[in-house]
């Protein structure tokens, strides 16, 4: 299957500090992929590399088989809704659509107008007069009407209330299904990603900790609880994610493709939030995670 995003040894340095390092990723086509991680993990850096707004310090990145920003044809295939869903406050919705038509060769004006009408938005209204949720919907409309093959969104719902978030994500899912659109979406709200994503990338402290199809990740990660045990004694096919101990008891989160038969363990499944938090627990204790979990 084609990769919408393929990174090999990808890294980006600001001054002497790596914002992203040793990133190997292969995000397949046809997914709504979630990029999750705490503040400062490198999500925006990775997305800006994917849309060609940054160039790598190390390694390679290919988006839809080409170097991001390598020419007009490549740029036309990728839509980008940047952080805080930027729009021009002094321009009306209709003017935004006209600008979109001028700037994008594949612009689908009927789709844009229809979507604005379905949202009940007045085309004559200036973007500066819209609510945060309406502005986000306008930015999403501009991204979809470009008719890209991949739509990249950087924390598009962070500032929205739960209802506006739900409406926005619903619109995104409908567009992805209707227009065979691949989506790469960052958020630190695990519950939002859980609702819309079927592929997940966990980024912590500038490194990809785990990536894969959500169903497969959930099927291969387990929490083991039982009598205290040295993690070094786990079978070699059980990859340890996190370990914690009391005086008598050990709790491990492991990743394994194999069934777990050891009768000493009580085995429980993880939900997506548990899984993300387990990988975040691997980070150094010097900086605390600020990942939000909202229901
Ligand atoms: N232009 C820049 N100059 C210097 N350092 C930067 C710059 N942009 C980002 N960084 C640093 O790179 C690291 C990764 O930042 P990035 O914005 O990619 O993280 P993020 O995961 O998107 O965070 P957030 O969730 O807060 O948006 C951070 O330590 C940040 O301070």
From TrEMBL:
The record ties this protein, via CDD domains, to: ABC_DR_subfamily_A (cd03230)
Which segments cross the bilayer? none
Limits of the ABC transporter domain: 5-230
Keyword annotations for this protein?
A: ATP-binding, Nucleotide-binding, Transport
UniProt key word Transmembrane helix: no
PROSITE patterns reported for this sequence? ABC_TRANSPORTER_2 (PS50893)
Question: Mind telling me which InterPro entries this protein's record contains?
Answer: AAA+_ATPase, ABC_transporter-like_ATP-bd, ABC_Transporter_VariousFunc, P-loop_NTPase
Give a GO molecular function annotation for the protein.
ATP binding
* Superkingdom: Bacteria
State whether keyword ATP-binding applies: yes
What name appears for this protein in its UniProt entry?
ABC transporter ATP-binding protein
Which source organism does the UniProt entry give? Actinomadura fulvescens
